[in-house]
Specification:
15 strands; 7-stranded parallel beta sheet; 6-stranded parallel beta sheet; alpha/beta
């Protein structure tokens, strides 16, 4: 079958998120053909190019969401069809279309302004705790939102011009009127003219996928299944593919884009009213994506809880852990402490969310109790000034806590804490880094799916982690888990394992067995192989009726595309379609093959 893989700032770009997961999925399911529909997030991402794509990738369409150019085109890459934003410049809407546009924007913006303020701290009742209140949107706001969203999509496909219209003065006036309407939240009601302008600009950027030229019989109309590699903007083309062509939508989320939006909101260069409006918009969009998806595959239970809070039906949810390559860590044996049993190892990107400050304070306690203990920090700062500044801060703190002490006047002192990068002669690869110590530590205050913990488990290492994100779910009972921002608890757990080699070896062996059972590439591919066949096999379809039938499209026929149809020479096939009379790509010509087989059999008889 043909799969439309939808990404936002991810595959096939070399610097994209979930790049490895998408590449393993495409390469690991050779029986399917993949068309890529990718949104890019920055000029730098475009400049760095793509990963090498396998032959089973049929077509690639891309569209930039970072540029203000109305018709951004790219050339020079094989098998690439660049997404074009149909702006309709030079063509003003007629009177009827202006009324349609006004009605749809009024409905969408009205829903956003009237929706519950879901940004962190917005509209929270006195005495309530963060996360205790429901985040779902009410039904009336959801209905208005979908009415406006799909209405604008249809207008964009018919006449274009959406880019210009959303940045017009008319849109700003609609935003102003909706923000001042009775019943809006206090934060939204306090918006001023700069806030109206900023939100209109952000709304136009968020709705750019509506104006792409992907929605035709050669684009998303030609695929049998849309698989969105994340929610939010990536899933928006999947919503329209289902709306226009009846293509089933599968949504996979290893993290929660909405959660990431909340975490970044306080640092965003936008006012509180704009942040509240954007939070409402993304909350309503997430709810609609979850409602329309045929199946949702969260990467862990932590993500699943967020999805349920935004209206995802539990019957549509199936947890599928992201697969990781266990073979690259196979050389690191269980209980093999090459770096010494008294060495703690931390591996990851150096940024404030990893809370290396707490780890250094915890290791100060460990070093006082065990003077021979060492801490090796492997990683590079995240891109940008913040990462470099945080690394310098951590190095300064380490120098203050652990001054170089020499045994005598002629010796050179050495710090028990080292900051290293993987790739040097001493630690040439990632597996060697995990092998450098007896205990792997994770000290984060924010974490989604802890990849470094899974890698440590593949290496048979005992772990000490903070209780954030999906850590408890991943570790199970094979490691020690402590509260975040608690250096004393982190130090006590590290000391407990450093002083008990038998327990350390036992936990490491259990961790390796758990990782091999749950987190391999093979289990991930097996899950999606079955999911693809199940979704296409159970998608509603229509059988063509004779020309004299009152309903040429025919009645809906569930299970009209059974998985057995993939075996040629089996069931006799009729042309089938999802929604309209659309024949799945893998079924084209199958009827003739089966008919030929039957005719040959009749002749032999």
């Amino acid at each position: 079958m043909r799969i439309g893989l939808l990404t936002d700032g991810g595959y096939p770009y070399a610097t994209g998120e979930s790049r490895l997961w998408c590449d393993r999925l495409v390469r690991g399911l050779p029986q399917h053909e993949f068309d890529l529909f990718a949104l890019s997030r920055s000029a730098d991402q475009e400049r760095r190019g793509w990963v090498r794509l396998p032959d089973r990738v049929g077509r690639v369409r891309t569209a930039p969401l970072w540029t203000h150019e109305e018709d951004a085109r790219h050339t020079g890459r094989p098998r690439r069809l660049t997404g074009r934003i149909a702006t309709g410049l030079g063509r003003a809407y007629g009177r009827r279309d202006r009324r349609r546009f006004t009605a749809h924007v009024t409905a969408l913006v009205g829903a956003v302004c009237a929706g519950q303020e879901t940004a962190p701290g917005a509209g929270r009742a006195a005495g309530s705790t963060p996360g205790s209140e429901p985040l779902g949107q009410d039904t009336a706001a959801a209905d208005l939102f979908t009415e406006g969203l799909y209405g604008l999509a249809e207008l964009a496909q018919e006449h274009g011009g959406l880019h210009t219209a959303l940045r017009s003065e008319a849109t700003v006036r609609i935003v102003e009127s909706a923000c001042r309407a009775p019943g809006t939240g206090r934060t939204v009601h306090s918006a001023t003219v700069p806030d109206y302008l900023a939100f209109a600009a952000e709304l136009e950027r968020a709705l750019r996928p509506l104006s792409l030229d992907w929605y035709d019989e050669d684009g998303l109309g030609a695929v049998d299944l849309c698989h969105a590699a994340s929610g939010g903007a990536a899933a928006l083309p999947g919503l329209l593919a289902k709306r226009f062509f009846g293509v089933p939508l599968l949504v996979t989320e290893h993290g929660v884009p909405l959660r990431a939006h909340y975490l970044a909101a306080p640092e965003a260069p936008l006012g509180a009213p704009v942040r509240a409006l954007l939070a409402n918009f993304h909350g309503l969009l997430a709810s609609e994506v979850y409602r329309q998806a045929a199946l949702i595959t969260p990467g862990n239970t932590h993500v699943r809880r967020w999805q349920e809070r935004f209206g995802a039906d539990r019957n549509k949810l199936r947890t599928v852990y992201p697969g990781m390559e266990a073979e690259r860590f196979g050389a690191v044996g269980e209980g093999d402490d090459e770096g010494g049993p008294g060495t703690l190892v931390w591996i990851g990107r150096i940024e404030p969310a990893k809370d290396l400050i707490a780890l250094l304070h915890a290791f100060a306690e460990v070093h006082r109790a065990e003077p021979d203990a060492r801490l090796r920090i492997f990683g590079a700062p995240v891109q940008g000034g913040e990462g470099e500044t945080y690394l310098a801060q951590c190095q300064a703190l380490a120098a203050q806590l652990f001054p170089d002490e020499a045994a005598d006047a002629h010796a050179v002192g050495a710090s028990p804490v080292t900051f290293e990068e993987i790739g040097g002669p001493e630690v040439p690869d990632l597996a060697e880094a995990y092998a450098a110590g007896g205990v792997v530590v994770l000290s984060s205050v924010v974490e989604g799916f802890p990849i470094s913990l899974v890698e440590a488990m593949f290496c048979g290492r005992a772990t000490v982690s903070t209780d954030v994100g999906a850590v408890v779910e991943v570790v199970g009972g094979t490691g020690l888990v402590v509260p975040p921002r608690n250096p004393k608890a982190l130090a006590d757990a590290c000391l407990a394992l450093l002083r008990d080699p038998e327990r350390r070896a036992r936990l490491g062996a259990a961790a390796r067995a758990r990782a091999l059972e749950l987190f391999t590439v093979e289990q991930n591919l097996t899950a999606f192989r079955g999911i693809y066949l199940d979704l296409v096999g159970h998608a509603p379809a229509r059988w063509p009726e004779p020309p004299d039938s009152q309903d040429p499209a025919g009645p809906p026929r569930p299970f009209a595309t059974p998985p057995e149809a993939h075996v040629l020479g089996g069931l006799p096939l009729e042309p089938v379609a999802s929604g309209s009379a659309r024949v799945p790509s893998w079924a084209i010509g199958a009827e003739g093959v089966c008919a030929g087989a039957r005719g040959a059999g009749d002749g032999d008889a």
